[in-house]
Amino acid sequence: MAEIKPINWQDNSDAFTLLGDPSWTNYTVSVDAELTKPGTIELIGRAGKQERPQSHQQGYYFQISNTGAWTLFKGNSDGKHTILASGSTAPFDIGSWHRLSLSLNNDKITASLDKKTVTTLKDSSYQVGQIGIGITGYDADQFHNLSIIPSRTKH
Q: Where are the domains of the chain?
């Protein structure tokens, strides 16, 4: 939760945190998330190189809004975002919990919401990196039951 905008030492960035080992390759990261007011939450996979400002974070991002609109994109350390897939699901009730998952297995990426796949695609831009959770803006959104499970790769 990041309710108050911090002092800007550089350009502004949405609030996020990275966890884990930068050498992780294939895994599924899942988390329960609750929006406390209209906004967007995100799950990040294979987070790697970061340049300043901190919003220039390399990785795959699964973002979903309370409206039900979702996007899976890749960000690079130059701050460029490339949309890989997008769509819409049922709107969220504010104050309700939802399970977000992002599976990365070699070049296969699967994003799921409440145990239902919203997209599966292939992209090999990033092969290793940490996981992350984040929010847009500065809100009291909450995360719970974070899990990281190594994938069993098939060649």
A: 15-150
Q: Fold for domain 15-150?
A: Jelly Rolls (2.60.120)
**Mean pLDDT throughout 97-118?**
97
Contacts 24+ apart (CB under 8 A), 74-77: 74/123, 74/125, 74/126, 77/48, 77/49, 77/50, 77/51
Q: Which residues of 130-147 are buried (b: 16+ CB within 10 A; e: fewer)?
A: bbbbbbeebbebebeeee
| 53-to-9, 29, 56, 83, 97 alpha-carbon distances in Å | 9, 25, 6, 21, 31
pTM (two decimals): 0.86
